[in-house]
Specification:
Bound molecules: adenosine-5'-triphosphate, magnesium ion
Number of domains: 3
CATH architecture of the largest domain: 2-Layer Sandwich
Number of strands: 31
Helix content: 25-40%
Distance between the termini: 32 Å
Amino acid sequence: MRQSRTFIPTLRESPADAEIASHRLLLRAGYLRRVASGIYEFLPLGVRVLRKISGIIREEMNAAGAQEIMLPVLQPRELWEESGRWAKYGPEMMRLKDRAERDFGLGPTHEEVITDLVRSNVSSYRELPMNLYQIGSKFRDEIRPRFGLMRAREFIMKDAYSFDRDEEGMRESYRGMYEAYGRIFSRCGCTWRAVEAATGLIGGDVSHEFMVPAAAGEDCIALCDRCSYAANLDLAAYRRGEPPQGEGKDVEAVRTPDRRTIGEVGEFLGLQPERMIKCLMYLVEGRPVAVLIPGDREANEAKLARVFASDEFRLFREEDWKKYPTYLQGFVGPVGLDGVEVVADISLQGAGGMACGANREDYHLVNVEEGRDFCVGRFADITNAREGDACPRCEGRLRMETGIEVGQVFQLGLKYSQAMRCYYHDEEGVSRPMYMGCYGIGVTRLMAAVVEQHHDERGIIWPLSVAPAQLHVIPLDFQKENRRRAAEELYETFVQRGWEVLLDDREESAGVKFADADLLGMPFRLVIGRGYDEDGTVELQERATGQGARMDAEDALARLEESFRSFRNLAARDDA
Ligand code: ATP
Ligand code: MG
């Protein structure tokens, strides 16, 4: 690649809306451009990185026995009706009509299409297990597209789907994918961890997310400091201590004028927040539900969704408080709250000596006991774990970390195969539903995650495995005949040996060339400058360390070949 002939529109300033490093740097370094909110163009260097990442994914998927296919983005409504997700997927699915007014969706994921493909074409136990994957565009009309490639509306995903005869087979396929995922993220240069995850709209029982730890991550993970327990906050359990106890006194109403928040009321009553019961009113599929949690905790909506068995719920809004005047905003509490379903966090089971809203303007109740003064329809884990909570599996403590979800794997079980009748005949000729698994990697999100883990204030620092070019050849004063010739020769030599090289053949100052090289982030660079005139040496520099050494061009060549070779050996070992 000759830099003068390559489309790399760098920017001096960071775009105003780019909040995180990967977004900022990929735009500034000319890898990407934005077309509309959450929709991006990949420029030549960006495409090269994507190809590298996709290449690693392909190698690992193929090695794990998966077969590559291509499925359509445009999908007919009928298939989504069969799984029940045409209605369920909601506004996140981009929808359109063809000229005959037939409904289509742009695939946010491909379980329906693949299940249809397999049910129509696979019928014998002999053909199973089967694992099919593709790398292609997905569309999700995210509420808040942001952070560049992290949360886009059109993005590239690798999605794989496994089909097995039985549950054991499904677990085996899952294990294979789980291991391949670890290799993929390591080969892309990322540190990662797999955590237990909720299954959301995709469904199934067992799932893991692959997280790349990064400050910019949108996901929160709870990790035990002793055992291997690691879970997404949406699933993370924590062991509750003994509930608070009272002294058996009668409930008493206390006037709490002008005090509304848990903190204000607690302070006024001389009680710690964990002694207060927060009563949150939710509208669940159109009906009110009271949700009780300790005053020092936050409700987790993913946990609530599982308790409600519905995604269709929200906290009371102004109009709901008006519509249900029996619930007094700011003073709602569980005592005497009749005719409404009450869900409470398990930590409140058997709690006494508590305070809560009195369902009366400007009043709170104290000495409240669960069981004696109010009843709960259902206890469940509905609150967020936090730093220092007790691990659910051992005596350790939980700590919190933020990460980027780059992939997720699911054991789907029979969810789609039963709904869509994806059956096979076993050895006895008995018809049985296939056990499925599905496995996604956000390819474009992974590209951003790599940058989050590999950059400094000057620019990107690509790992060798995914760099758009491994080497940046930078002649200073390109118009000087001898340097130009040396640069061209080195460039040709490397290219012939199969390396990817970016040659800075622009007539720019040394300062501009170095700043651009730092920004673009090729792992190695060869600088041909004054040393070359003096004694024929070039400087070999490493982007990551910033260190350089002067040497003969021959030595530089040998050193680089050595680095690349050990890198390749490493990759080969990963393959094994
Ligand atoms: P998230 O929780 O971040 O919205 P998800 O759990 O809905 O993601 P999956 O259905 O598991 O996503 O999709 C598989 C992978 O696709 C994710 O692990 C993630 O890496 C990627 N991905 C999902 N949504 C987006 C998006 N809007 N932009 C970029 N990548 C995405
Ligand atoms: Mg996911």
